[in-house]
Amino acid sequence: MSKNSKNGKNTGSTTTGRRAATERLHDERRRAERSARIRRRTVVGAASAAVLALAAGVALAIGGADGGAGAQADGPLVVPANASGPDGTVVVYGKADAPHTLQVFEDFRCPYCGQLETTDGKAMQALADDGTYKIEYHLATFLDKGLGGKGSRTALAAAGAALNEGVDKFKQFHDVLYANQPDEREDAFGDVNHMLTLADKVPGLKTDAFTKAVTEGTYAPWAAKVATAFDSSGVTGTPTVKLDGKKLEVFGNGAAVTPEQFTTLVKQAIG
Question: Left (φ > 0), alpha (ψ -120 to 50) or beta: where does 162 sit?
Answer without folding.
Answer: alpha
